[in-house]
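Handout, section B. The chain below has 284 residues.
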Amino acid sequence: MKVLIVTNYSRSDAVADASKLEGYVTEQGAEVEWAPDLYNLGARIDDISSFDLVVSLGGDGTLLRAARLVGYAGVPIVGISYGHLGFLTCAGPEALIRTVDDAMKGRLHASRRYTLEVQAEFMDAAQKRFVVDKMALNDLSIGHGIHGDVLSFEVNVSGNHIDKLRGDGFVVSTATGSTGYALAAGGPIVTPEFEGMVCVPVAPHTIMARAFLTGPTDVVEIEVDPERPVDICVFADGQPMGEGASLVRVSCKRGSEDVILLNRSRESFYDSVSRVFYGKAAER
């Protein structure tokens, strides 16, 4: 077995526990490799498909980074929470060895989480258009730039016009991402078994605009009003796209493959909802 450790290097406790975990996994006869620091831009993992398990030690942001590293390779991810919420993770640091041991022995529940394929078209300073593609486990979001201008954009779903909106932005999330930015913007909590997308306007300048859900085969398209060219920031799972260029349009649809998150049971999602949002001390 080959295990990849993805840790938040800014947290000393996560790094220390990652070292302990490396010792334990090695004792079990498995091979261990550490993912490079997020800010080590030149470092790469040669073949992610060669790993049998990815262990994320950090918060939900670290787990999202692990998902970006895995991509569509189908390598299962188990998350250990050292962050504020830990909604996507399986356990806390106190259960690190037990949880990873269970993951290595196939004792955990595999939750298949669908992804988004995001395609954004930009225009650079020379008026040349280019396209950026990204995968996202949580969401696509657009928002105003440093000048704080109100955005004006059209929203379409599979060729059907939904609305022309003015506001601070728009979020398109997966069911997994429904508990992130989409929830903060007023969207619903959605079970991971829901296969459509969650669409949420951010601070719309109308009382009529509301969150809505799409079907699993829909394509959500957002087109910027050309008569109101303002700075717009585009993010896929919090990672910027097309920095320094002007957004023309962006679309997203269900990704071609799922990401596999390991947890204790099918009910782990509802335990996390109770623990994080309602203050219930659920057993982890």
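Note. Residues 2-108+264-277 form a domain with the Rossmann fold fold (CATH 3.40.50.10330). Compare this with the example in section A.
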